[in-house]
Structures are given as structure tokens and as C-alpha cells.
Amino acid sequence: MKKLFKKNCMLLVILVFPLCLAVCSKKNAESAVENDGGTRIVTDKFGREMEIPQNVKTIVCLGSGPPRMAAYLGVMDMLVGTEEHDAENLNVLRDYNPVYYEALKKLPLVGTGGGSGQNNGYPEEIISLAPDVILAGFAKEAADELQFQTGIPVVAVGYSSNGLANETFYASMRVFAEVVGAQERCEQLLSFIDECKKDLGGRASGVPDSKKLRAYTGAVTFSGRHGFGGTYSDFGPITVINAINVADKAGEEGYYEADLEKVIVWDPDVIFLDPGNMNLVNEEYAANPDYFKSLRAVQGGRVYTMPSFNNCSMNISYALMDAYYAGIVLFPEQFADVDIAKKSGEILTFFLGENIYDTMAKGGLYYGNITVGK
User: Fold this and answer.
1) Beta bridge partners of 216
2) Both 166 and 210 in a single domain?
3) Which tens digits make up the pLDDT trace of 71-104?
């Protein structure tokens, strides 16, 4: 009886397997027809060669960077799902969210969101939506894992927050644009960034270091919120305008927690602080007001806002705006023709198709003087 059962099972497999192959082949053929009859190869940020449909029509964007990149390229209408953190509330910390929030909150949820680099997608939901491609700001292993879970090509894109729109951003934007067929818009965007960088870098290039104000940028956001000691070396908005960042003296690379006693020694002429983290700074002030009162920038009322540009990777639009504002403060003569509200409106409109400057301010991201301790 057992032998007969095994024989029948084997017969069933022999009969069903070709049928499964036929069904799968039919689906693949139909998919190929829908996508102009074939596939193509793209190489992602990790050098993974991914086979994707010739004509990509639907996408899912996950992790650090891809949703913003889709917004910059003007292809948000290709999204068939969204991450939870973009659907929960309107959030000015991610520049694209206020523009697209109403549309995003109506989409199915396909992941939690966040900048950890780990696989935080929802495989079953993604499979049910059947996007042509998943674009993910994940680590290589996480991208491989999600592809295994879904059977859908996962193209890894993403960029670091060092500098200001560095080479990793340019490279990943071009990969993303290649996937969705937005190469022309991509090159327009990168050219716009190049023009801004050239303008920012040229204005004060002839000013000798001896005549430059020395700046410190504190309370910056990286891997979460930070108080006064949270800072960057090679801080993009400061470096691009050829200004002096005292935090470069510590020999650290990128963002780090500065020794507060060193900030006293550096004694910067100007201090920039993230207005979103001022509650942390004010708590520090309440605990040790004499420390802050000893700083010349605080004494002279030369403390200014520097809205955070880092949330699930860099908001390139905000970083450029921060650079122009830093120029206005540190090089008033060379940036005398720049009105920060007008310039910000131009940048936001080019990147996102909408000027959300007032929305930013209402959400706590604004430009102006700030008083430590209030």
C-alpha cells in the first residue's frame, strides 16, 4: 500500500510540475509583453547586476533615500505602496513628505521606514502589489534577503550624508533614473546642484582665512537627536561656502559628539543650532548656564538656526538652503543679494515642484536668530 501511495505521489508530481512550469512561463511571457517584450540589466550601488523589465511601470521605494529620490525625479505616481512613517503624519523633516503626504497616506503599507539599512519591508504585502522593481536603501545583505522573500528584483540605491550631495548621491540617482526612465530629469537635477555648488563656492573664495568668521554647528541630527555637542566635521553647508568650521580641528570624520571643553577653547564667532533640538540644548543650559554664557557667540547674540537636513539620508534641498543661509550670516557682503526665503523657494520648487518654505517654518524648520536658554 505504501509503495502504491509513493508511486501515485510521484505520478502526481510528474503531472503537476510541467503544468506549474507552463503557468509560470505564461505569466512571464505576459509580463514581458506588458513590459515591451523583454528585460534589461541594471547595476546597483553594490555592483549587483539586476534583471528588470524593459519598461518599468510600478515601483516600491524602501529605506533611506529612495522615496526622496522618487520625488526629486518626479515619479512618485509610480509608487504602489508606501512606508508607515510617511503615511502616519505630515513630517517636514523629510522634504518630500509635505508635498506628497496626502497621496502617500492612501497607499498600502509596504514597510516601516527608517534609515537603519536593514530589511524592514513587508514581503507579503509587496508580493500582493506585484511592483516591477523594488528600490531599496538597504545594506547588500538586506537587499538580497528581500529579493529572496519576494522574488521581485531589488535594486539597491542610497547615499551618504557626508559633504553636500556627494558622489554617492550622483551615482545612485543615475541608477534610480535608469530604472524608471527619468534620465533627462536626473541630469537636469544634478546640473542644478552643480550650479548651486559653483555659486556657493565662488562667492567667498577670495576672502582670506584671517578675515573669516569661525563657525560651530551644534545640536545636529545624526542617528537621532543631539544636544549642543552633536556636530560634524566637513559639514556640507559650511564647507561648500569655504567657511571655517572649528569642529574640523578635532580630527574626527563626519558626525561626532564634540568635547564641550574643546568648544570653549575653539570659542567660535558664530554658532548654528538645529531648532528642532533646542529643547535638548536648553536643558543643558539650565544645568550649566555659565558654560554657555562664556562663549563669545552667545555673548554677542550670534547664535542662528541651522535646520536639520538629515532624516533617512540627506534632504539635498534643505542642505543647499542651509548653505545659502550660512553664507548670509558668515559672509554678509558676498551674499548680500541673497534673500533666504526667495532662494529657498526656488530650490524647493525645482526639487519638489512646490514651495514648502512656510510649511517648514510652521513645522519648526526656520531661519533666524535664536536665544539659548529660551
Assistant:
1) 271
2) no
3) 999 999 999 999 999 999 999 999 999 999 999 9
